[in-house]
Amino acid sequence: MYDLTVIIPTFKEEANIRNIITEVDAVFQKNTLNGEILVVDDDSPDNTIVIVNELKKTMANVDLLVRTTDHGLSQSVADGFLHASSDVFVVIDADMSHPPALIPKMYEEIRAGCDVVIGSRYMEGGGIKKWPLKRRIISLGATFLGRLLFPDITDPVSGFFAVRRSVVAEAKLKPRGYKILLEVLGKGTWENDKEIPFEFSDREIGTSKLKIRTIIEYAEQVADITLYSFTHHQSAAWREWKKVFKFGIVGISGIIVNLGILFLLVEYTCLNEYTDNFIAIAIAGAVAIEISILNNFIWNDLWTFHSQENRKYSSRWHRLVAFNIVSAGGAAINWGVLLILTGSFGFYYMAAQFIGTLIGFIWNFTVNRRFTWGRTSE
Ligand SMILES: Nc1nc2c(ncn2[C@@H]2O[C@H](COP(=O)(O)OP(=O)(O)OP(=O)(O)O)[C@@H](O)[C@H]2O)c(=O)[nH]1
Ligand SMILES: [Mg+2]
User: Fold this and answer.
1) How many Å apart are CA 234 and CA 51, to the nearest integer?
2) Distance CA 37, CA 54 (A)
3) Domain span at 84
4) How close is the Cα of 219 to the center of ligand 2, in Å?
5) What is the atom index within ligand 1 of the atom nearest the CA of 159?
6) pLDDT tens digit string along 17-41?
7) How many whole angstroms from 57 Cα to the centroid of ligand 2?
8) Are residues 244 and 224 located together in one domain of the fold?
9) In the listed set 179, 207, 234, which residue is the last one of a domain according to the structure?
């Protein structure tokens, strides 16, 4: 039994395949890893298969799976999971875009308890070399969509990652398109993840296969994972929905606190005696708003985001300040939407306020999630 299996999906990679296999094997030897190399090829019409078969003669740890139906990168990787003969899988492109030197580190993190280890282009220390603007924009768009499902992960569509067999063993993967990692994160069973930065280098040789259809398939995949999470409550995306739900309940408690404090201050304190009622209400209103923000902070900190690990802000005071700033932004957005919808679009003011509250809520959740209770990128 091998320690790990490096899965290399290939289609027409005759120019790269020898290189990547030799490099991965050199990394195994240097780190005394007992690793398997599994090439999953979609019946390439070039010499990819011939070259792998030739290498197999001298390298006992190289295996080749040739697929003839259901052509596709994600499908190939998923077949690789089924075919691999170890419990740790590392997926890497054939075109030298991903540094094989990081494989031992990924393996170590899995050994140390991680379920998924991701090579990230978008965290501190990572990057992309020589990419045209169009590709950067497409990739950022894809990454943004993926981060809605997995806010802690900076690069949920990376093609370079490691997973434990148990993550995907029972998963009902519906692989398609290019983003197999998103499928694994969405449908696999996992708790702990870690990202490792790396610099992505564009292929020097061979041809690219990215098409417009890829983008449409990706959007479908995100929708599919979202639907899946509603019915599969062990999934990571469902964990995220639970946070949204808790954040909403805390928000409702904040409204009650806000109204209650306002009422108490106006009716039962010395503010009551001010003849100029407007000042009394202005003061009481401001105090009530701040106390409700404090209320929301405490419950979100102790309950909604209680299990958040590796916090960006380890001090509760820092989180409180961040939450206050973000919430002020949320209130401003709410107010702006009210004014615009009533002033320019003739909305009934209650409907406008309702929409404003909803947009303010989305802002408050997403920004606080990533910022106030976000994870450190180290
Ligand atoms: N088995 C299989 N492998 C594929 C398929 N499409 C791409 N690959 C492999 O998947 C890896 C990533 O594909 P690339 O074409 O490099 O995709 P990319 O990195 O997004 O784009 P470029 O590097 O610019 O071409 C490479 O090892 C390809 O050979 C496919 O349909 N089936
Ligand atoms: Mg590539």
Assistant:
1) 42
2) 14
3) 4-234
4) 20
5) 12
6) 999 999 999 999 999 999 999 999 9
7) 27
8) no
9) 234
pTM recorded for the entire structure: 0.88
Q: Checking phi first, is residue 22 left (phi over 0); if not, alpha (psi -120 to 50) or beta?
A: alpha
Residue showing tokens 């990168």 = 73
Which of 173, 201, 234 marks a domain boundary?
A: 234
How remote is the CA of residue 202 from the centroid of ligand 2, in Å? 6
Mean pLDDT across the stretch 291-299? Answer: 97
- Same-domain check for residues 168 and 72: yes
- 96 touches ligand 1 (CB under 6 Å): no
Identify residue 287 by its one-letter amino acid code. V
Distance CA 150, CA 136 (A): 20
Ligand 1 lined by 73 (C-beta under 6 Å)? yes
Residue 377 within a domain: no
Ligand number nearest to the C-alpha of 70: 1
- For residue 89, what is the enclosing H or E element? strand 88-91
Which atom belonging to ligand 1 lies closest to the Cα atom of 207?
Answer: 25
Mean pLDDT computed over 92-121: 97
Residue 312, both tokens: 């960006």
Atom of ligand 1 lying closest to residue 72 CA = 31
Tell which one of 93, 136, 181, 210 to mutate to probe ligand 1, the residue whose CB is within 8 A of the most ligand atoms.
93
Measured over the CA atoms of residue 149, residue 326, residue 329 and residue 255, the dihedral's sign is positive
In a domain, 182, yes or no: yes
DSSP symbol at 302: I
Q: Is the CB of 13 under 6 A from ligand 1?
A: yes
Lowest mean pLDDT among 178-182, 211-215, 229-233: 211-215
One-letter amino acid for residue 66 of the chain: V
- CA atoms of 38 and 263, how far apart (whole Å): 69
Question: Helices in 112-211 by DSSP H: which ranges?
Answer: 133-149, 165-169, 180-187
Q: Are residues 251 and 361 in the same domain?
A: yes
The response to whether residue 149 sits with its C-beta less than 6 Å from ligand 1 reads no
> Is there a single domain that holds both residue 207 and residue 281?
no
Work out which ligand 1 atom sits closest to the CA atom of 40.
1
How many angstroms from the chain centroid is the CA of residue 319?
Answer: 22
Instruction: Look at residue 245 in the predicted model and tell me its pLDDT.
Output: 97
Number of domains in the chain: 2
| Ligand 1: residue whose CA is nearest its atom 31 | 72
